[in-house]
Every structure is written in structure tokens, then in C-alpha cells.
């Protein structure tokens, strides 16, 4: 059940809330789907004990570290309340709090509905209008065109290429490396202003 006190963000179709200490099974189920893990581990599931003992405690600690303003949040459909995955908006552990990573992982049943773009766009807006963030960035494998498309749709552009980490060298087409995407607060404000201007009908002289 969603509670207002733990709601982080709500869009037209999705609500983000904090994970709770008893939510490990949600993450275990999500990471057990080979299709979901295709570009993360080559399809191998995350060990359930790692999720219970490391991943979930780290997520919960992040809420305290960043005062609930940043972190990794569970995503639920507004219609029906189904768990669809998670989204994150968080700094690197020892990085500046005004530079945050945008990321997500969705259940296969939630693919193809536009949820990633809808929520990512709202998170970028929240970052720049409520959280005093300077840069939002995201990283993806070169072969993961769907993820690239989402970042491009919310205004992010490639800022550098990435080498494949050693623990991902066995993943499909990992030899191609990856890309880091970014959008700054100034770029977002300019893009938003331009979009607003283009939606206003121009007057026509008689």
C-alpha cells in the first residue's frame, strides 16, 4: 500500500515510494528475469542473499544519507498498484550531491508502455526545480538502444564514451563499451523554455 509519507514522486501513471525493510522479495523477483538482467549481468540473477544483506540495506541507508531527497525508489502503477521496478536519482557514494545519476530497472511486463520516459522526465524536472541539482547523468551500454532512447527523449546528450568494467566483460556485446549521458540545469531550463514557446500559437497579421 502506498502511503503519502513515503511517496517520493507521482506522475500520471506511476508512483515512486521508498523501499521498506521487507521489500527484498520485490528486488529478488525483478533481478531473477534474464531479460531484465541482459545488459547488466548477461542474464544471470542477482544472488538473493546479496539483495537481502547488501543491496536493500544500502538502499535504505541512502534515504538517511540524503535525507530522503535522493536515492533508489520502488515504482508502482497508479492503476492497480502493481510493482513495476525501480528508478534512482542519486549521487555517487562519495560524489557531490548536486550531480546525480538517473537510472531505472523495470519488470518485463512494464516494458513498452512509456513508463521509463514518463518517470525519467519527471525526475529530471524534480532534480532541477526542487533539489538544487546541477547535473543529471546516466550511463548505458552502447548496445542498449532502448535506454539511450529514453535519455535522449528527456534531453540528455552523450558527453563521453565508457570502457566496459571488468565484471561486465562477459555481457553481450560488452566489447562495444558504453556512453555517459548528461543534462545540466541550464540546458534543461533552455529546453523547457523552448518547448513552452513552441506550444504558444503565433499571432498572424491580417
UniProtKB/TrEMBL annotation:
Query: Which terms in the Gene Ontology molecular function aspect does this entry carry?
Result: acyltransferase activity, transferring groups other than amino-acyl groups
Q: Which Gene3D superfamilies match?
A: 3.40.630.30
Q: Which UniProt keywords apply?
A: Transferase
Q: Which SUPFAM superfamilies match?
A: Acyl-CoA N-acyltransferases (Nat)
Q: Tell me which InterPro entries the record gives.
A: Acyl_CoA_acyltransferase, GNAT_dom, N-acetyltransferase
Q: Which Pfam families match?
A: Acetyltransf_3 (PF13302)
The record's listing under PROSITE patterns reads: GNAT
Q: Where is the N-acetyltransferase domain?
A: 14-186
State the protein's name.
GNAT family acetyltransferase
